[in-house]
Amino acid sequence: MPIKAIIYDLDNTVYPVSAIGEKLFGPLFELIKESGQHTEDFDAIKFAIMRTPFRIVAQRHKFSPELTQKGIALQEELEYEDAIDTFEDYPEIKNIPAERFLVTTGFRKMQMSKIKQMGIEADFKELHVVDPTKTSKKEVFADILKRYNYTPEDVLVVGDDPESEIAAAKALGIATVLYDKSGLHQAEEADYRIDHFKDLKTIWQKASNR
């Protein structure tokens, strides 16, 4: 049976956060720096914020409750207003005859502004911005399966984060594709690993013939 749907992550899967990170997160970086609490690992925090949901970064780096709340309040109002380029291989996903869903964790205004600036809204059947205080990617994936009568075997999940969308998909028995453009992860962290979307169609064909 062919794979009927592919669920994609956004950040570092559709586009590189590093291309806009300094500008987008500038106010947040300044807030953290001014707190004086994390001068020794500031560069590591900046890198993590571009790859990992803020609440997880705050927890791992032991932000104070006050700094965490200030960071959340700031990001809830942040929007990006300049053009954003997708990865050069992004158009390849349109060559696969499967429904496309976009599921991203983050602050709604921020994530929706990025989607708008990329002009990719029409490329997906549904867009979901996951607020981790209210739900999870696993729950959103499960809801998509339920509403469209998909089985886990009908779906692929594609993303860059083994601890986020890849783990959520695995928990539901959905096949996973790690999009590892920068070579940061081990191949065994997902069912498949790619660094260019041209290889996704081959995986779709292979998975469809299981």
Structure description:
The structure is a single chain. The protein is α/β, with parallel strands linked by helices. The protein folds into two domains: 5-15 and 83-208, HAD superfamily/HAD-like (Rossmann fold); 26-76, no CATH class. It has helices at 21-24, 26-35, 42-49, 54-60, 65-76, 108-118, 137-147, 165-171, 200-208; strands at residues 5-8, 99-105, 126-130, 155-159, 175-179, 192-194. It has a six-stranded parallel sheet, with helices on both faces. Strand 2 (99-105), helix 6 (108-118) and strand 3 form a beta-alpha-beta unit. It is globular.
Q: Notable features of this structure?
A:
210 residues; alpha/beta; 38% helix
In total, the number of domains comes to 2
Number of helical runs?
9
Q: Percent helix among the residues?
A: 25-40%
Whole-angstrom Rg: 17 Å
Strands side by side in the biggest sheet: 3-2-1-4-5-6
Short recap of the structure:
It contains nine helices and six strands.
Q: What layout of secondary structure does this protein have?
A:
Elements (H helix, E strand, L loop, with lengths): L4 E4 L12 H4 L1 H10 L6 H8 L4 H7 L4 H12 L22 E7 L2 H11 L7 E5 L6 H11 L7 E5 L5 H7 L3 E5 L12 E3 L5 H9 L2
Parallel strand pairs: 1-2, 1-4, 2-3, 4-5, 5-6
Helix pairs in contact: 2-5, 7-8
